[in-house]
């Protein structure tokens, strides 16, 4: 586990974007595992910047997103497909047909999960998986509990997660109750994992996840089992490690 703490936002974002850019330079056909939430946004901005300067190309790359809300129309501003289009895909040269986000509007959600997992098996493994972390230690939308699911599946979102994500919606009632998420096993298959966290509000969960016991009550703690994890933190999020 390589934990790095940064004094300023620019350096954190540049380091994260630099890792992704060097992967693409050595392996143009890389499979990227992408994430939503506020944590990766600065890294996406830096990547767009590098692309505009001609320093990186995504033309041959493909991507798989971690998760998507169930029942939210794709064109809804808060769907993770819209988020990815706006924050990254529409500003770079990636072939949209090679960008994968689970379909949260599928009529048969279990079948959609099985197909997503199959596509990952066929086109993966993911070379680098970008991750944020929820306040309760969730990764993707794998919520804490007595057990975790390995493969891509439908999950009921915890009230605390819906509350945390309500800031992006007009009210908490609009936050979907379910999501499709890669499983923890799916995530752990990535060759490298890059987790980003910022702010005092993440300090305690970062300590639990990386200094505490490996437990399903903190899904991010399972990352301790992975041989190649890089954690980029700002000073506040890294205060307790
Ligand atoms: C959501 C996403 C997670 C993300 C988490 C943290 O629940 N499904 O993938 O890590 O939010 O979000 P933020 O980065 O905004 O703190």
Automatic annotation (TrEMBL):
Q: In which pathway does it act?
A: Amino-sugar metabolism; N-acetylneuraminate degradation; D-fructose 6-phosphate from N-acetylneuraminate: step 5/5
Q: In what residue span(s) does the Glucosamine/galactosamine-6-phosphate isomerase domain sit?
A: 18-226
Which reactions are catalysed by this chain?
alpha-D-glucosamine 6-phosphate + H2O = beta-D-fructose 6-phosphate + NH4(+)
**SUPFAM superfamilies to which the protein is assigned, alphabetical:** NagB/RpiA/CoA transferase-like
Q: What Pfam families does the record point to?
A: Glucosamine_iso
Record keywords: Carbohydrate metabolism, Hydrolase
CDD domains, alphabetized: GlcN6P_deaminase (cd01399)
Alphabetized GO MF terms: glucosamine-6-phosphate deaminase activity
Annotated EC: 3.5.99.6
EC supergroup of this enzyme: hydrolase
The source's superkingdom equals Bacteria
Q: Where is the active site?
A: 67 (proton acceptor), 136 (for ring-opening step), 138 (proton acceptor), 143 (for ring-opening step)
Q: What's this protein's function?
A: Catalyzes the reversible isomerization-deamination of glucosamine 6-phosphate (GlcN6P) to form fructose 6-phosphate (Fru6P) and ammonium ion.
What family, per the record? Belongs to the glucosamine/galactosamine-6-phosphate isomerase family. NagB subfamily.
Protein name, per record? Glucosamine-6-phosphate deaminase
């Amino acid at each position: 586990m390589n934990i790095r703490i940064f004094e300023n936002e620019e350096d954190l974002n540049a380091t994260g974007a630099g890792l992704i850019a060097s992967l693409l330079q050595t392996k143009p056909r890389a499979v990227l595992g992408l994430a939503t939430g506020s944590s990766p946004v600065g890294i996406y901005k830096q990547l767009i910047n590098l692309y505009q300067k001609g320093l990186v190309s995504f033309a041959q790359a493909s991507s798989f997103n971690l998760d998507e809300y169930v029942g939210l129309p794709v064109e809804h501003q808060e769907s993770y497909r819209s988020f990815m289009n706006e924050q990254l895909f529409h500003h770079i040269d990636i072939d949209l047909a090679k960008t994968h986000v689970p379909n949260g509007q599928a009529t048969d959600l279990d079948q959609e999960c099985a197909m997503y997992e199959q596509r990952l098996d066929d086109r993966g493994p993911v070379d680098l998986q970008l991750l944020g972390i929820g306040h309760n230690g969730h990764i993707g939308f794998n919520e804490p509990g007595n057990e975790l699911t390995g493969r891509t599946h439908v999950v009921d979102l915890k009230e605390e997660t819906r509350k945390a994500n309500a800031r992006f919606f007009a009210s908490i009632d609009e936050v979907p109750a379910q999501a499709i998420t890669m499983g923890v096993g799916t995530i752990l298959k990535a060759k490298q994992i890059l987790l980003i966290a910022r702010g005092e509000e993440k300090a305690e969960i970062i300590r639990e996840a990386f200094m505490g016991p490996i437990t399903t009550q903190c899904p991010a703690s399972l990352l301790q089992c992975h041989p190649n994890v890089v954690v980029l933190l700002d000073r506040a999020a890294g205060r307790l490690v």
